[in-house]
Amino acid sequence: RKEVEQDPGPFNVPEGATVAFNCTYSNSASQSFFWYRQDCRKEPKLLMSVYSSGNEDGRFTAQLNRASQYISLLIRDSKLSDSATYLCVVRWMDSSYKLIFGSGTRLLVRP
Amino acid sequence: DGGITQSPKYLFRKEGQNVTLSCEQNLNHDAMYWYRQDPGQGLRLIYYSQIVNDFQKGDIAEGYSVSREKKESFPLTVTSAQKNPTAFYLCASSIASGRFTGELFFGEGSRLTVL
């Protein structure tokens, strides 16, 4: 079983739609969680951290469910510029530097 | 502007040749990393360094070597022992462990193709 699993997609949605991605992780001792965004053939960039109580940043909402070991990312009012691959990233409690990256979920927003 | 510079952006090499990928940062970060990304897969950690003159193997270190002689520089050598070296290589840096927020700053990557 992969340490971090994501649906590869692609999720193909119209502009203005709401779309949600889930990500599951295998290590219950995971400490920190993040969503990174990666544009085609570019480097990943941090989109947002995921806090236990859930958090929002504009049109983006991240949720954490420790009991079921998954995190989610909700994007409201999708824009064409949201088209990218979204990487779920987990940091283990016993490894201060090591981040485990999921393989990503691809989002395509169409006009 | 502060950032991470990787070079070359594209590199073609013949099988059996060693290649060295450059990574320089001017963010004054203590920690630096090398990741490999293959199509449809997540980033996999090759090596990381928390401080000058020290580095640790990641999950897929076999066939790779690194050095950290300066804080700003963390070059990666892909040796002929690496069985499948064609990939997208990403260098990253971050602040030190005690204050690490989970944010890695990546370079633009180096695409290595072995012919």
What does this structure look like?
The complex is a heterodimer of chains A (111) and B (115). Chain A has 111 residues and is an all-beta fold. Chain A has strands spanning 4-6, 11-14, 19-25, 30-38, 44-50, 55-57, 60-65, 70-75, 84-92, 99-101, 105-110. Chain A is globular and about 40 Å long. In chain B, strands 2, 4, 5, 6, 9, 10 and 11 form a 7-stranded mixed beta sheet that branches. In chain B, strands 1-3-8-7 form a 4-stranded antiparallel beta sheet, with no helix packed on it. Chain B has strands at residues 4-7, 10-13, 19-25, 31-37, 44-51, 54-57, 64-66, 76-78, 87-94, 105-106, 110-114.
Keywords:
A: 111 residues, mainly beta, five-stranded antiparallel β-sheet, 57% strand, B: 115 residues, seven-stranded mixed β-sheet, four-stranded antiparallel β-sheet, globular
Please specify the SSE layout and strand pairing.
The complex is a heterodimer of chains A (111) and B (115).
Chain A: E1 4-6, E2 11-14, E3 19-25, E4 30-38, E5 44-50, E6 55-57, E7 60-65, E8 70-75, E9 84-92, E10 99-101, E11 105-110
Parallel strand pairs in A: 2-11
Antiparallel strand pairs in A: 1-3, 3-8, 4-5, 4-9, 6-7, 7-8, 9-10, 9-11
Chain B: E1 4-7, E2 10-13, E3 19-25, E4 31-37, E5 44-51, E6 54-57, E7 64-66, E8 76-78, E9 87-94, E10 105-106, E11 110-114
Parallel strand pairs in B: 2-11
Antiparallel strand pairs in B: 1-3, 3-8, 4-5, 4-9, 5-6, 7-8, 9-10, 9-11
Would you kindly provide a brief summary of this structure?
With 111 residues, chain A is mainly beta. Chain A has strands at residues 4-6, 11-14, 19-25, 30-38, 44-50, 55-57, 60-65, 70-75, 84-92, 99-101, 105-110.
